[in-house]
What we know:
Elements: H1 2-8, H2 11-39, H3 44-66, H4 69-74, E1 78-85, E2 96-102, H5 103-127, H6 129-132, H7 139-171, H8 175-202, H9 204-225, H10 232-274
Antiparallel strand pairs: 1-2
Helix pairs in contact: 2-3, 2-7, 2-8, 2-9, 3-7, 3-8, 5-7, 5-9, 8-9, 9-10
Amino acid sequence: MDSLMALAADPAAWAALVALVVMEVVLGIDNLVFISILSNKLPEEQRSKARKIGIGLALGMRLALLSTIAFLVGLTQPVFSLPFQGPVDPVHGVPMFEMAFSWRDLILIIGGLFLLWKATTEIHEKVDVEATHGVMDVKGRVAANFGAVIVQILLLDLVFSVDSILTAVGMTDHLPIMIIAVIVAVAVMLLAADPLADFIHNNPTVVMLALGFLLMIGVTLIADGFGFHVPKGYIYAAMAFSGLVEGLNMASRNAARRKQAAALEHASPTGSDNV
């Protein structure tokens, strides 16, 4: 208790908490977009339940990983390495290098490949209407889809949770700060889940944009797993710019609809008088 009081009185601890909460919320956007897209494939009465279960699993997984920090840190230790051909050295010949892989790297690579596969499949279903016609009309298939959606959310929760907690471990040494930051971030995800999912569902072009984001995130995870770190600031800046462009497109379409509705309303009395 004394250590917690001392931590609460430390301004540096509060600064670390704020920074970590912001980082966890930003990292949670990827997870939330994936959950929103998957849950929107379910019948309307099941969507909110699937989101709550998915976010609850994310919270439980993050807290479980925090309780085993020693094991989690061990995931960053190399488990095997592969030699690969390096650049040609005209003086000393062709050197060979070794690329080491940890369990974290393998989790990120597998998760990135899964994300690429899932996003590509979703894009194919959106483009090829005939491939999915009538899928949601069969009750047995819908019930099976709920379980499939939860399993897919669980798999991606694992990938995003490992990345999230390792980021937290790298930012602070205080476990209470990590726990509070994770709980606050997941609470924000829970509050934003339904509005974000409804927004994505009501705007088909945003669905394709979100799937494009997932493709980019999948490539980033694979690159990170192979040791090529892409600063996430670049990724989120690109996502924000694309979102801004899409927002301008939506505003333009809405203005065109309002103008068309106003023109029809203005022309309606004239048409009735002619009759």
